[in-house]
Structures are given as structure tokens and as C-alpha cells.
Task: inverse folding
């Protein structure tokens, strides 16, 4: 797994802390590991958990936070943009 993917996932989780309680826990786990396999599993577990959110209000809040993050990323980050946008799109599309 690339460092870029881990950093992008860290940004996503940081943006979600205010809207999704497990985000902080996942962020702690992510920050404590350098294991690519575990990071990949965390990524899939986060996606799964977001898909299971029942509250429409919470889904919209998360989607809005991720869209803002994507807009900011597009303005600031041009290197490895495709991978970062794909990850954000995966999260947005799974809500």
C-alpha cells in the first residue's frame, strides 16, 4: 500500500470524526500501524461500516464532509490525485 493511500485514509477519517463516532477509533488504529495488509483491511472495514449507517441525516453529513475534503484535495493535491479521488469516490458512493 502506498503512503499516499494511508495519508488519504487519515484525512478521510479526520474529516469524519465530527460526524461518525468510529472514525476516531479507526484513525488511532491506522496511525499505529505500518502493516499494509492491516491498513487494507481497515480500509474495507471502514467502507463496510459506512455502508451500514442507517441515519439519513448522518449519511448526508458524512457525504458533505467527504465532498468538501475532495474539493480541497483537488485544489491542493495534484500528485497521485487519481488514487485519492478514487478512495473518496468509494466512500461517497457507498453511503
Result:
Amino acid at each position: 500500500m502506498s503512503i499516499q493511500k494511508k495519508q488519504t485514509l487519515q484525512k478521510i477519517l479526520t474529516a469524519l470524526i465530527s460526524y461518525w463516532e468510529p472514525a476516531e477509533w479507526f484513525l488511532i488504529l491506522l496511525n499505529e500501524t505500518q502493516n499494509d495488509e492491516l491498513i487494507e483491511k481497515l480500509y474495507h472495514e471502514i467502507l463496510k461500516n459506512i455502508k451500514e449507517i442507517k441515519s439519513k441525516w448522518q449519511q448526508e453529513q458524512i457525504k458533505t464532509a467527504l465532498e468538501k475534503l475532495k474539493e480541497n484535495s483537488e485544489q491542493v493535491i495534484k500528485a497521485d490525485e487519481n488514487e485519492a479521488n478514487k478512495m473518496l469516490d468509494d466512500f461517497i458512493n457507498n453511503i
About this structure: The chain has a mean pLDDT of 85. Residues 3-93 form one domain.
